[in-house]
Fold these 2 entries.
Entry 1:
Amino acid sequence: MNQNATPSLEKIVPDAEDFLPLLGTDYIELYCGNAKQSAHYYMTAWGYQPIAYSGLETGNQESVSYVLRQDKITLVLTSPLQAGGPINDHINRHGDGVKTVALWVDDATKSWAETTQRGAVSVFEPDTREDGDGKVVLSAIETYGDTVHVFVERKDYNGVFLPGYHAWNPTIPFESVGLEFVDHMVGNVGWGEMNTWVDFYARVMGFAQLISFDDKDISTEYTALMSKVMSNGNGRIKFPINEPAEGRKKSQIEEYIDFYEGAGVQHIALATSNIIETVTELQRRGIEFLRVPNAYYDTVLSRVGEIDEDLEPLRNLGILIDRDEEGYLLQIFTKPVVDRPTMFFEIIQRKGAKSFGKGNFKALFEAIEREQESRGTL
Ligand code: FE2
């Protein structure tokens, strides 16, 4: 499994302080109304491989979890087995959404101590869990909304996922679509809260700010938002934080906050090294993406210059292109993947560029506004 690879701790973000340090994203846990059916969707449509299971058959009376993996991306889908309790409360308030962004560390005890000393609120203290495959140490702190970070120390563990989980080999078909790793994960926070959470990641986690966008960069005729991108020292963990800004109509961030009933994870960007193949396959399997007007492609090459790919397949699939000083990137965004207009995915292929597609913001947000219009939430 990916966690056994030797991580690079090379510092590429000079202002970051790597006192944890973070080795990568360990897993992302979603609380869902029906994890069994969500697991089927992520396997058949998104190409995740079944890895592990926890539930009644493994002695877990409270909840059921399905663990899925595609290359370095691990998803955990969890549903409660009874009425009441924190998982039900989370689903009742937020709908299906991300509860945990788990971070892979060398020392979960030290990570908990360093972050709580710097002001993080503890969710649980370092906790050693063991089974026949070894031991892991987990600890957790709160972040924005009801979202938490779990620190995962797994250097002494050889099991499929975590102690308590059994290997899971269902007959459900799955075939990878070429997704490789989590490129970044975006949090939406409320009015005036962006800097609070930017400060949190700087002060508590030692992150540094890579980029800032204000309402002049990210606004359309109607709506606006502001965003700052925070990164850890080795650049493996990048968390853009968005807040709504004043516009003539309701911004997509405000719509998210209204329907999620608070701050939460807005999108998870997944990297591929062949976006044309990945998106062709996802569209064939029924995943719906936002479309920009065809006119976007009439002028895009004059904005971004030469690219390796033919424009035609990019136009047919609706893939967007942007360039910065270091190279270019290709990206596309799904429509929300849950019932409420909240969480969605981005598929991204970087060809040198380290930025986030600023040149596409206007066309993209106009596409989102057309969707909001159809929902009556603009
Ligand atoms: Fe993104």
Entry 2:
Amino acid sequence: MRQTIIAGNWKMNSSKEVVNTLVMGILSGMADVKSKVIVCAPFPYLSQAEALATHSQLQIGAQDLNVNASGAFTGEVSAEMIKDFGVTHVIVGHSERRSLYGETDEIVAEKVQVALDNDLTPLFCIGEQLEERESGKTEAVVSRQVNAVINRVGIEAFKNIIVAYEPVWAIGTGVTATPQQAQDTHAFIRRLLADHDSDIAQSTPILYGGSMSPVNAEELMGCEDIDGGLIGGASLKAEDFLHICKAG
Ligand code: PEP
């Protein structure tokens, strides 16, 4: 039985005041939440979010890492630094990093490896562009993305990896994959993992991301192979985020 996981991705949003209100708002409604809940804050707010969430069931994640441990990499943040803030999770390979910052499958795979080496759980994002879906390439794209990581870290490592399937055309657009579209791709991803190890395939959490909201969360997470959500826009309002957490 896989535990439901809800992860919020705040992206490049927030302020000290907003972090305070948001985290306190989430914490105030957590008592009856059974899912594992993570919020991924921008780097400058990790410390503040972590301090507010101390002794609660809310876990804190980062949104990216640099593969180097330290050195002359101006503007970058290492896994060691993230760990220093008590962070437990890190988003790796988000479609915005892939498309805006040129992160290839190989770079993403290396980041997954570095996260694991530093005892951080990667939220490993995959997903196809609209034209790839429309030309029937969804399975080929997610296979390529997943295989790059399996080739780098091995299937055993998936015991410590959370996969997030995020169709790029659904991220931030208000257009959600239908439960059937999402379920079909999630089942395909699980079969991909099962080609290597069926037990690991069964235990790996596969989250859905892409305009998940209080309106559609329950139906999406009711699908057999959807184990939770990676939530962008709706994670910026405590009430909406909690609603999704409770639907899980
Ligand atoms: C995301 O950024 O990972 C995401 C799923 O965003 P949204 O929920 O806003 O589509």
